[in-house]
Amino acid sequence: MKIAMMASEALPFVKTGGLADVIGALPLALEYCGQEVIVIMPRYKSITDSKFRINRISEGISFTTIGRDIKVYFIENSIYFNREGLYGDKNGDYQDNLERFAFFCRRSIDLLKEINFSADILHLHDWQSSLVPVYLRNTYFDKSFYKKMKCVLTIHNTGYQGIFDKDEFSKLGLSGDLFDINGLEFYGKVNLLKGGIVFSDLINTVSPTYAKEIQTKDFGFGLEGLLRQRKNVLSGILNGLDYSIWDPSADRFIMQNFSEQTIESKVFDKEDLQKTCGLPVNKDIPVLGMVSRLAEQKGFDIFVESLNKLCKMNLQIVILGTGDLKYHQILKTAAEKYPKVISLNLKFDDPLAHKIYAGSDVFLMPSKYEPCGLGQLISLRYGTIPLVFKTGGLADTINTKNGFLFSVYSKEELLKSVEKAVFTFKNELKWASLISNAMKCNFSWRISADKYIKLYVKAKTS
To answer: Who is most buried in 135, 279, 402, 445, counting CB within 10 A?
Structure first.
């Protein structure tokens, strides 16, 4: 099949979140499975010729190649994309984001014909590319080149929908009839993600459990009714993990490489982590690692409420990440109060992240909601036992054989789970079994790619 993937960010070019990881890895896995794939994305200011081998093919269009022969096409516009940020700056979202991504969507559709890429599937991601199926079904419907193309929309997080003032609808160049309850109208505003959900052939999310959750009030963010209406074309496919990057047997950032067969060497990474973070070196004290955005969605509300009691247990906590200022301040105070228990690292530090995954005993991920989650997949690979709230992709990947879960979102249940983990850590046989089960887990992108191919076949024949 011929697949055109359209998204607002992708590794190795630009990244603000997990979407970039997906667009950086899924096309490669699809190519490995014999599919013909191209990627289309905006060319932001940071995507320069000096960093990447970029070729210009026409005014406003350039490309480079990844994998064996995957062309990544860049949509250029100096007014819209020649900026420091992707979606906003320190003052918030860019005021012209609707215009920016409407331009991106229409230019992407036009590009397909210009390069004569007669795609079977247009795979769209989140609100930034959700106007593609809207334009395709309402503006390009009478153009024969596009007639057989099917649209698959992946929702990575329903919390981000691309909502704009109703006065901006006219900038889309669409018929006014589409600004109603059956189109892009959403409580008197324009909702781009809603448009994608209405006009796409199939919709999926990044885990089976999240596909169910977004049909509820707690996770649908106002779109739950529409998603229930479209439940027959809604599914969930877990994101994969790039094992070429996250591999403890070859990780260049950690002190001692190890595998399931040489798991005893993991203790050297724990010692290195404790030294690096200024904590007392003691292999018998369980280390809890966190690599996360410091935000309520990631569970930091119940985590900080539990901190005083956690710090009185016989454990250590290493935290890496940045986020909401209030959590920065609370955690700073706690780290000053418990310097032998908490190592707080308010920054982005990729080498330290690798050390935390390799050297911790437990990976703490109490997210209130988590569409898929990447941290728990990495920690499994490194034999670091995940402790998670039972939601979204966390519920789909973690069980009692490879981790710890709590199903009521509260500080009390979080504390009980940590207590259970600390108690289990003291039992060498049980802990070794957990590590073995964790490291045997396989969440390869090739498994996910196979599922996407089946989804594409379903879309093509629908």
So the answer is: 445
Residue 59, classified by CB atoms within 10 Å of its CB into exposed (0-12), middle (13-18) or buried (19+), is: exposed
Q: What is the pLDDT of residues 126-141, one digit of tens each?
A: 999 999 999 999 998 8
CATH of the domain at 169: 3.40.50.2000
Q: C-alpha distances in angstroms, 108 versus 199, 210, 388?
A: 17, 29, 39
In a domain, 248, yes or no: no
418, part of any domain: yes
Distance of CA 276 to CAs 251, 360, 375, 406, Å? Answer: 17, 12, 21, 31
Is 266 in contact with 293 (CB distance < 8 Å)?
A: no
* Residue 140 to residues 60, 97, 148, Cα–Cα distance (Å): 21, 23, 12
End-to-end CA distance of the chain: 15
Q: Cis ω on the peptide bond leading into residue 12 (within 30° of 0)?
A: yes
Range of the domain at 433: 263-442
Same domain membership, residue 137 and residue 38: yes
C-alpha R_g of the chain: 23
Helix, strand or coil for residue 138?
Answer: helix
What are the tokens at 198? 């209405």
Residue position matching structure tokens 């007639």: 147
Q: Which of 377, 76, 122 is nearest to 246 (CA)?
A: 377
pLDDT tens-place string over residues 46-91: 998 888 999 999 999 999 999 999 999 999 999 999 998 999 988 8
Q: Do 61 and 75 meet the contact criterion of CB atoms below 8 Å apart? A: yes
- CB contact at 8 A, 152 and 179: no
Domain count, the chain: 2
Which residues lie closer than 8 Å to 284 by C-beta, 6 or more apart? none
Rounded CA separation 55/453 (Å): 30
Task: Verify that 327 and 351 share a domain, yes or no.
Answer: yes
Query: In this structure, are residues 322 and 291 in contact, taking their beta carbons and an 8 Å threshold?
Result: no
Residue 247 lies in a domain: no
